[in-house]
Design a protein that fits this description.
Elements (H helix, E strand, L loop, with lengths): L2 H18 L1 H15 L4 H22 L20 H17 L2 H30 L2 H6 L12 H6 L3 H20 L1
Length: about 180
């Protein structure tokens, strides 16, 4: 193995580790972001509304998703391949606005650039391996898909309540931080 191949292999291993540990890293970054946050009333309201909008996208996506069973093409999956990640990015934007901190904005940008790009690559490789031509066809817009309506039961089965609870806790912490300043 030459130097370039070894470097590429190490880069791949790092990307894999970041993708696998993105939730744990997210908690660590979230705690740091809460410590660095300097919310005011307006930033908390506007950022909170944006974060809740991001969670609404995640709930919509989770209510259409049959994880590991098929390539989902209904609901927001008609418009974007990764609506859960899109929702998460909007939630992060909401918290950046709510925090009113350049340091939090930089932390969020680095976190998303490193972990979510790795997670998307990993997920797309998995889906192509699992579903064969269906996933590349979906990416290219050639897959018709299943007509499915939104199901709150499906969203709960996909454990979307965890993200909602996290948002509510983080907004509450920012509100307390604002109140004691």
């Amino acid at each position: 193995m030459n130097f370039v191949e070894a470097l590429a292999r190490r880069r791949g291993l790092l990307a894999e580790a970041l993708a696998r540990r993105r939730v744990a890293l997210g908690f660590i970054c979230g705690i740091a972001a809460l410590a660095l946050a300097r919310p005011n009333r307006g930033s908390l309201i506007y950022g909170g509304v944006i974060a809740i909008l991001g969670e609404a996208i995640r709930i919509w996506a989770a209510g259409h998703l049959e994880k590991g069973r098929e390539v989902t093409t209904s609901g927001p999956y008609r418009f974007t391949r990764h609506p859960l990640y899109l929702g998460s990015a909007i939630i992060a934007l909401g918290f950046v606005i709510a925090s009113r901190s350049v340091a939090v904005a930089l932390l969020a940008a680095v976190y998303f650039a490193l972990t979510y790009t790795s997670a998307i690559r990993r997920e797309e490789t998995f889906l192509t391996g699992r579903f064969g031509a269906a996933y590349p066809d979906y990416k290219a817009g050639r897959l018709g898909g299943v007509a499915r309506t939104f199901s709150l039961e499906r969203a709960l089965r996909n454990r979307e309540y965890r993200a909602m609870a996290g948002i509510l806790v983080a907004l509450a912490v920012l509100a307390v931080k604002l109140a004691i300043r």
